[in-house]
Amino acid sequence: MDFDKENVIFKNVSTNNHSNGTEFSSSTTTTAATTNTSVGQSQFSEAVSESSGGVMSYSGQILPSPNLKVYSFADLKTATNNFKPDSMLGQGGFGKVYRGWIDSKTLAPSKVGSGMIVAVKRLNSESVQGFAEWRSEVNFLGMLSHPNLVKLLGFCREDKELLLVYEFMPKGCLENHLFRRGEPFPWDLRIKILIGAARGLAFLHGLQREVIYRDFKASNILLDSNYDAKISDFGLAKLGPSQEKSHVTTRIMGTYGYAAPEYMATGHLYVKSDVYAFGVVLLEVMTGLRAHNPKRPNGQESLVDWLRPDLVNKHRVKHIMDKGIIGQYSSKVAAEMGRITLSCIEPDPKHRPHMKEVVDVLEHIQRINVVPDRSSTKSHVASSSRSSPLHYQYAYKAGAAGAERRRASPRRFGVEKELVA
Ligand SMILES: Nc1ncnc2c1ncn2[C@@H]1O[C@H](COP(=O)(O)OP(=O)(O)OP(=O)(O)O)[C@@H](O)[C@H]1O
């Protein structure tokens, strides 16, 4: 894929499923000026939009052409006040994210404090994976538009510098709210966020040529000022299998605790692998505990392995719920959450639901949550640890959800060896 400073050249996505990230074959190239890019309908968009079926589901769409601003490195230095450390919003596996400022009409960089705030991700350009992630992000987020996907506004590639400019999500990511110190994150916001994120995934899976997101986790669910969820980070996304195949085979990459067992074992990737990861996030949201925590005692490191047996029994589900939010959800809600979570983390991908069904179930759960008296929350919290089963005694006596709020984010992994189907 060739880019230069003034012009961006998009090449088309191939259907080769045997290399990492979004793949490209050389055919049509289209140039775009430094203002907004203007590219023709690529094979990528054709692949995901062939015939119109599913394209508009949940009010999303495949854009006829990417509408991304091309920035110079100097532009983004200006916008971020020279990447000042105190403007850093966060850091991921492949780079740092800074607060920046641009003109809201022209999207041109502006001085700090004027115009609108954006998030500028500066990728670690030394790593091959950094480039692959950047390219994948530009190609997927440049073409897809949905209320539950974060909006990519522009990008920069100059010498070794690779940057992405996104709409700013003022409430940060779900991970920070779920595992932060202090007040536990309220249940009604948790369920609202889950519904939004589920709609985003359902949109990707409902496209004519499915998109497998591959890295679904709490830190990739960003929140706007209204706590509406938007999925970010398409660095590992893949086009789903072509019609005659059930899966794509790829390198095993992702984040510990979220990756589906079939993917970890074989490298076979299905849309249902995303459903598994969604189930893991459901479990994190229910319990306030991280998907993977090597500091938990033996047998408890993996949240799914540890708590799956409790999801099977509706009477035990309530004991695994985050003790900080007792009184904010009904026991029926806890039982229903247990059921949908269990089905999402089914070992066999065929037995997992489609994301559209998950959306329906979560919307139902949101509707049926009637809680009589929230003022009783505190006394429940105080008494709950005494009534918990033995293996939770460690967790909740020590205030497990609270303790996990002080721990570091899950680690990403990537096995460089490519697996063969
Ligand atoms: N558009 C945005 N608006 C506001 N904050 C953002 C935005 N994008 C990212 N951030 C912040 O920057 C942090 C790092 O984001 P990034 O996508 O680089 O990594 P990550 O998802 O946390 O980790 P990983 O690289 O392992 O996927 C996020 O957790 C979030 O707090």
TrEMBL record:
One Pfam match: PK_Tyr_Ser-Thr
Domain named Protein kinase: residues: 83-367
This enzyme's EC code(s): 2.7.11.1
Reactions listed under catalytic activity: L-seryl-[protein] + ATP = O-phospho-L-seryl-[protein] + ADP + H(+); L-threonyl-[protein] + ATP = O-phospho-L-threonyl-[protein] + ADP + H(+)
Compartments reported by the entry: Cell membrane
Highest taxon of source: Eukaryota
Sequence positions that bind ATP: 121
InterPro entries from the UniProt entry: Kinase-like_dom_sf (IPR011009), Plant_Ser_Thr_Prot_Kinase (IPR050823), Prot_kinase_dom (IPR000719), Protein_kinase_ATP_BS (IPR017441), Ser-Thr/Tyr_kinase_cat_dom (IPR001245), Ser/Thr_kinase_AS (IPR008271)
Leading EC class: transferase
Entry's Gene Ontology cellular component terms: plasma membrane
UniProt keyword list: ATP-binding, Cell membrane, Kinase, Membrane, Nucleotide-binding, Serine/threonine-protein kinase, Transferase
Entry GO MF terms: ATP binding; protein serine/threonine kinase activity
PROSITE patterns: PROTEIN_KINASE_ATP, PROTEIN_KINASE_DOM, PROTEIN_KINASE_ST
PANTHER family xref list: OS01G0588500 PROTEIN-RELATED (PTHR45621)
Similarity annotation: Belongs to the protein kinase superfamily.
Name of protein: non-specific serine/threonine protein kinase
Biological source species: Eruca vesicaria subsp. sativa
